[in-house]
From TrEMBL, chains A, B:
One Pfam entry name: APH
InterPro entries on file: Aminoglycoside_PTrfase, Homoserine_kinase_II, Kinase-like_dom_sf, Pseudomonas-type_ThrB
Domain Aminoglycoside phosphotransferase: 27-265
SUPFAM superfamilies in UniProt: Protein kinase-like (PK-like)
Coiled coil regions, renumbered to chain: none
Catalysed reaction, written as an equation: L-homoserine + ATP = O-phospho-L-homoserine + ADP + H(+)
Enzyme class: transferase
Origin organism lineage: Bacteria, Pseudomonadati, Pseudomonadota, Alphaproteobacteria, Sphingomonadales
Record flagged with keyword Nucleus: no
Pathway terms, separated by semicolons: Amino-acid biosynthesis; L-threonine biosynthesis; L-threonine from L-aspartate: step 4/5
UniProt entry keywords in alphabetical sequence: Amino-acid biosynthesis, ATP-binding, Kinase, Nucleotide-binding, Threonine biosynthesis, Transferase
EC number per UniProt: 2.7.1.39
Protein name from the UniProt record: Homoserine kinase
């Protein structure tokens, strides 16, 4: 939640003029995104108001990866998936470099979509999100780009190693043991032969715009990569089916999310069998980044780190043998 | 630049439902305002999109003063001044109390106006701002509310006393002497018999929305009060006619701003004679608050304090006898 780059109105008008989207009418810095600067932009073109999100990419996003993310949006939008399309500039480019006091930064102008992010989803909303996730899995089938998952098992191992056993135990006395056990089991059993393709990999409620029970936009594809579809289902399950603190698992949300997904893209028997393990991986993935950020964020930082224990609780839930048949429920296919 | 209060989508929809403005379509926290939380809200009503700014008042704004600020907006807007009007809730109230984890907070829903804030104004823009300032001075003539200026001379004296001579000299070795001399002269000579009424008192470029050379909105009236009109002209002059760091006085901007004001509300001879002194007061007012904030903001604060020296430079400029005839130029009346 930040606007890192400061832009005067004249500079903003110059940026917008490079796109054939009309005249700048309004620009408000918005408190979204952790690592980029974002503005809600309004222009007027041929008497019609148009709206966009302008993103300036700060250091965490590699410019070399932008074509993957931005072309993916265009590809998915063209196939009717609820994602914002990228505006191309008058030369046809999907992103531009902009000179700032801190050096050149990449920027992109992306379609504004209506909708709000829910914080207490209903089963109807979870079902719609499951369906939208399956929709992007299918729509990306003929997308030519690929991108390795930089937040896969080796990254978790490294992040958790950097936290150190002592660091983890400073968060909770049992966390070192839990992490060690889970890392070992996941490293031994992680599946590699399941269907794969482009996944979102970070589909938290914050990254879904909804109106009522309709998904109006999936956003923030900056973790999108090529990996197991069922892992994306597991990530979304971990993100949607618990209270924010990782307690209060909601079986109705779980059932609805899976039903919504399966209605659009039925999972194979082996995908379904892998879900419990994949869900442990998903929980460990966010535990790893959150624990690392928690232990390495300076006290005076602008961004408050998120509680890693919220994902330790999910991990324990998924690893608990009492919940072994969580994903084994009868699902309409 | 901050959003202090967190609101879930469901909570936001509940807030909006208390106003007869249609269904919530979008809500983006915006990085505006130093002491309040603000969202750009979109609703749909009878098939038409509508936009608003939702403000939640954090501790610095006294709820008891909100009727003055909000009624003033309605009064000015009704008289054609370019200010946003306040949406009243279904019971007719201009503001509501909202329960949050940190206790009840006041909120208001205010009309969204197009426009961007310029950072390098042209003379044409300065002239338009002068005209808009005069327009609100005239339009408020029959506004029944009054509010003392809590940021007048006694407040500057107190803030600068709290900074201490040592504190001021830590900002610049000459600042203690400059402040002492100016405070003494202003206390002795501050005029009391000039025309007065409702003034904005903080009309920096950030608080003016423009499209080209047209003023589309004057915003952020939370320092508005009853005081000398000519002092408001002096504040606006200090805010618009220099580079951000207080150097590079621009005589063309100065001339245009005053011309624009005088074209709508001609100043009397005594107001014009008082302007040099009032401008020293305006510069000292922002020097006082900025120096206080600079010396009292914890290093880990979310808000970066603004450089007080930018107003020390303006103060020196206005106090320099070489600039004595700055406001004495021939102005079309």
């Amino acid at each position: 939640m930040a606007v890192y780059t400061r832009l005067g109105a004249e500079e903003m008008a110059g940026i917008i003029a490079a796109f054939d989207v009309g005249t700048l009418i309004s620009a408000k810095g918005i408190a979204e995104g952790v690592s980029n600067s974002n503005w809600l932009i309004e222009t007027e073109q041929d008497g019609t108001g148009r709206r966009f999100i302008l993103t300036i990419y700060e250091s965490r996003t590699e410019v070399a990866e932008l074509p993957f993310f931005l072309d993916l949006l265009d590809h998915l939008a063209a196939r009717g998936a609820p994602v914002p399309r990228t505006m191309h500039d008058t030369t046809g480019a999907s992103h531009r470099l902009h000179r700032t006091a801190e050096g050149d930064k990449a920027l992109a102008l992306i379609e504004f979509l209506p909708g709000v992010s829910v914080s207490e989803p209903t089963p109807g909303q979870a079902e719609a999100v499951g369906g939208a996730l399956a929709q992007i899995h299918l729509a990306a089938a003929d997308f030519p780009g690929t991108r390795a998952n930089t937040m896969a098992l080796p990254a978790w191992q490294q992040l958790l190693k950097d936290c150190g056993r002592e660091g983890l135990e400073s968060l909770h006395p049992d966390l070192g043991t839990l992490v060690e056990r889970e890392l070992a089991q996941l490293a031994q059993s992680w599946p590699t032969d399941l269907p794969r393709g482009v996944i979102h990999a970070d589909l938290f409620p914050d990254n879904v715009l909804m109106l009522g029970e309709k998904v109006t936009g999936l956003i923030d594809f900056y973790f999108a990569c090529t990996d197991l579809f069922a892992y994306d289902v597991a990530v979304t399950h971990a993100a949607w089916c618990f209270g924010a603190d990782g307690s209060r698992f909601d079986p109705a949300l779980s059932e609805a999310l899976l039903r919504g997904y399966m209605a659009v893209r039925p999972m194979s028997e082996s995908e379904r069998r892998a879900l419990p393990l994949l869900a442990r991986g998903a929980a460990l993935r966010f535990l790893a980044t959150r624990a690392y950020d928690w232990l390495n964020t300076p006290a005076d930082a602008l961004v408050t780190p998120k509680d890693p224990m919220a994902f330790a609780r999910r991990l324990q839930f998924y690893a608990d043998p009492a919940n072994a048949d969580l994903f084994a429920q009868k699902m309409p296919v």
